Amino acid sequence: MKKISKSARSSFINYGIVLIFFVFFQIMLSTGKLSNSLSGQLIPICTYVIMALALNLVVGISGELSLGHAGFMSVGAFTGVVVATALKDVITLSPVRLILAIVIGAVIAAIAGTIIGIPVLRLQGDYLAIVTLAFGEIIKNVLNCLYIGADSKGLHFSMKDGNSLNMETGGTVIINGPQGALGIQKISTFIAAIILVLIVLFIIQNLVNSRAGRAIKAIRDNRIAAESCGLNIMKYKMMAFVLSAAIAGAAGALYALNYSTVVPKKFDFNTSILVLVFVVLGGIGNLRGSMIAAAILTVLPELLRQFQDYRMLVYAIVLILVMIITNNSKAKDMFGRVSAKIFKKSAVQKS
User: What's the whole-model pTM score?
Assistant: First the structure.
C-alpha cells in the first residue's frame, strides 16, 4: 500500500505541474504580459513535452535506444494535415477536426510503429538505434517525394510531381513534395495541447504502474531472467514501442496544425536527438524530469535571443552544467553511445 500511494502521489504531482503551467501562462496571456514570440512557443513546448514522454517510454521504461521518433512524429504530422484539410468543408467545427486529426495521426503512426517494430525489436542496443535512425531518414525522404491533393472525388496521391495528381479544376494540393504542406489552417490551441499532455501522462503512468509496466521494466533490467519467468519479450517490447509511436504521431499532428507551413526537413535526425536530449537531461525513466527538461530547453533558445552572438554557446553551457549536476551514469553512457553514432554518421556523409 505504501508503494501504491507513493506512485499515486507522484502521478498527482505530475498532473499538478501541468495544470500550474497552464494556469500561469493563461494568466500571462490574458493580462498581455507574454510576448508574441513566447506565446507562439506554448504549443511547441507541449508538443516536445509529449515527445519526451513518448521517447522515455522506450528509452527509460523499456530500456531500448530509439533514434527515429522524429519519423513517427512526421507520419502523424502529415496525416493530421491531410485529415484536417480534407474534412475542412465537411466538418466546420475546428475542435472536432483537430481531435480527428490527432486520433488518426496517432493510429497511422502506431501502424508504422508496428510495421517497423516487428523486425526491429528483435535487435538490441546499438543495432536497434541504427535501424530506427535509418527509418526516420527513410520517412523523411519518402515525404519529400510525396504529393497529395484533394477534390470532390476524394484524395489523390502521386510520387512523381504535383501535375500527375489528375485533380479537378479547383482541387487543393495538400502536400507538395519537398515544399511540404502549404496553406494549413491553424486549428491547434493551447488548451487542446494541455489536454493532450494530461491524457498522455495518464496513459503512460497507468501503464508503468500496471502489471504490463512491471513486466516491461523486468525485461529492461534482466532480459534472460524475465524470459525464464515466462514473459513474452516481443509482446511487451512491442506494446511499449507501438504506444510510444502512437503518442509521437499525436504530438506531430498537434504540432503541424499550429503552423501554416510544415516541411519534411523539420523532422530529421536532429529532431530525434533533441528529444533524446530532453529525456537524458530530465533523467532516464523520470517522466517529471523529462517534462521539465523539454519545457525549459524548448523555450531557452528564445529567451537567449537577445544574446544572439552567444546564444548557442550559453545553451551548450547550460546542457553541460545540467549533466554535471545530475551526475547520472546511465545518462553519460547514453550520451556516449549517441555521440559515437553522430560522429559515425558525419564521417559517412563526408565520405
Answer: 0.85
